[in-house]
Amino acid sequence: MARATGRPDLPAAPNPASPQVIRNVVLVGPGGAGKTALFEALVAARVPGQRTGTTEHVRTTTLTAASFESGGVTVNLLDTPGYPDFIGDLRAGLRAADAAVFVVSGADGIDRPVSLLWRECSAVGMPRAVVVTHLDQPRADFAATVEACRRTFGDARATLWPVVEDGAVTDVVGLLTGETSAEHEEARAALIESVIEESEDATLLDRYLEGEPLDTDALLADLRTAICQGTFFPIVPVSPLTGVGIEALLGMVERAFPDPTVHPLPTVTSPVGGTVKGVACDPSQPLVAEVVRTTTDPYVGRLSLVRVFSGTLRVDETVHVSGHLGDFVGREVEGHPAHDDDERVGPLASPFQDQHRPRGTAVAGDVVLVSKLSRAETSDTLSSPDRPAVVAPWLLPEPQLPVAIRAATKSDEDKLAGALQRLVAEDVTMRMEHAGETDQVVLWAMGQAHVDHVIAQLADRYGVTVTAEPYRTALRETFVRRCSVQGRHVKQSGGHGQYAVCSIEIEPLPRGAGFEFVDKVVGGSVPRQFIPSVEKGARAQLEKGLLTGHPVVDVRVTLTDGKAHSVDSSDVAFQTAAALALKEAANESTMALLEPIDRVDITIADDYLGAVMSDLRGRRGQVLGTEPADGMGPEGGWTVVHAEVPQAELSRYPIDLRSVSHGTGSFVREPLRHDLLPADKAKELLGG
Length: 688
What we know:
About 25% of the residues lie in helices and about 30% in strands. The protein is α+β, with helices and mostly antiparallel strands. Helix 10 (about 410-425) packs across helix 11 (about 450-460). The strands form eight sheets. The protein has an eight-stranded antiparallel beta sheet with strand order 15-14-20-11-12-19-16-17. Strands 2-3-1-4-5-9-6 form a seven-stranded mixed beta sheet, with helices on both faces. Strands 26, 31, 32, 33 and 34 form a five-stranded antiparallel beta sheet that branches. It is built from 16 helices and 34 strands. The N and C termini lie far apart (about 70 Å). It is elongated. Keywords: GTP-binding, Nucleotide-binding. This is Elongation factor G-like protein EF-G2. It holds the Pfam family EFG_C.
């Protein structure tokens, strides 16, 4: 097997022969907890020449992977972003993995945002171990962190205890296997009781209460089973910077974390919705794999990080590529049109940060990089051409922050569309919209950090410079009082002229009623063949707008009278007369602006409910009601607020809600209707 390019000292790519010797592990935790430093320390412990974690203050913005051998198994380790703007990469990492290492700070405690990350793991039934870092900081308290984990996470207990000397972690003590002292007895007893609760041996509790010595090996076996099944969460103290606890954590990954045959497979169907038979985590079964992330390397080209669920993926093999993301989210997704194609698999490689170690195959359960899959995008399925399949995608968050961008130069404008299409195809949490009414290119993102990352990617990867500009909501015009006007279009210039006169009445309709046209002409003053022309001209002018250029809605136009000429009247003349009549009727006394109103459902921790309600009032929001939130973890204390809010007040709401709720709030919204825009707000939006 060839060595990695650019790193002659890097070992050859692992090539596991069966799923049973694979461990797919994802690092999860809040920003600043030390995930990236832990990632580097774990890799350095098994890969000669790899640098150890030198800092705990690196913000990870993308999913990073490294494969290495450890204790007879292949570990595919994935590092995910902890910042909420990059939750898409977190969920992609959870899809690729079978177990998680949840990283928390022993100095910062467990807050609501941390519990939200824990819920992300719980939602997919992920077995977890909890790693406590930052124990060398002055305010660190391991015992208090253990209790906080138990209150928040459920059945979580320390399996090792840190030895702290002069403010530094120098060693760890195994509560079941090490030489414990009196200070460890309470924690050791609590751990044994938890293991007994998880044990299938019904006599174990009675023997323990009677004082019978318990077999340590049997306890360890029960502990590993509980960890593998995801019913017990061990807590491990680790110092990524000094390496203390790293070997213990790797040993747990090797012996207690599940292999891919244990973790349930995602739902798999055929492209037409039928059942695909024989799908199992077995190299001999039909191929089913999923692209969990795509990116573009300046030297290699397109790179796809693929999780193989069933069968074996081979270089130069023809596979079927299925993409049906829109069917699962209920709408067409920019950059992810429905498609079914056959394509030859390019070179395979084991992921190792920015290094590529070639390999020939990837068996069921493995995670592998595939080069030059030109037709496969993030969340697409790879399968056998004779048995095409579609894997149900992971839960996709809806981007809620709109940012309008404009190319800085004509050269940037020529390249912008292609660059954005590529980035949107790679990142399923970003949406691009061409807002025709406001003449803006709008990026819908997860937050400001996400926007900054996308703009940096445009500049670094594609050489496109863009500037952000205020996002404009699409307003509407409407009539607010009844009026009668006449439109007269008469022109004589030799030969056939143009002649049309129409008298119309205009009256407002209820919100959402749309446009109505009524014909009340009597006596043939307007010939029958020209009445549709009046309606056509009215509709066209209402679409263009009358006062501000926004479409006019919720109005009834009634044709009451008119005049025609036997020679000079025409379809175009009556269309023009109808448009002139509407323009004649439009002024500040007869018309007003309408703004879009969204239905908003906000999930918030009860601690910040008052602040959120006050903030909604400041946004001209109307609270419709509240109810307890379901499925938010064992600690409860969450509420869903239902409200109606003007869309213009929500343009920065993802950022503001995060600030008001201390990172605990989230929301979804949907367009509801248009309502009258207050006069003072109209002046603000229209620049006076």
